[in-house]
Amino acid sequence: MRVLFVCTGNICRSPLAERYASHWAEQHGTAIEATSVGTHALVGYPMDPDAAEALAALGGTSDGFAARALTTTDARNADLILVMERAHRDRVLATAPAATLRTFTLSEAALIASQVSVRTIRELAIARTRVPQAVDAPDILDPFRQGPATHRRIAEEIAAKVDIVLGMLAPSTTDSPKTPTL
Question: What is the band of 171 on the pLDDT scale with cuts at 50, 70, 90?
Answer without folding.
Answer: low
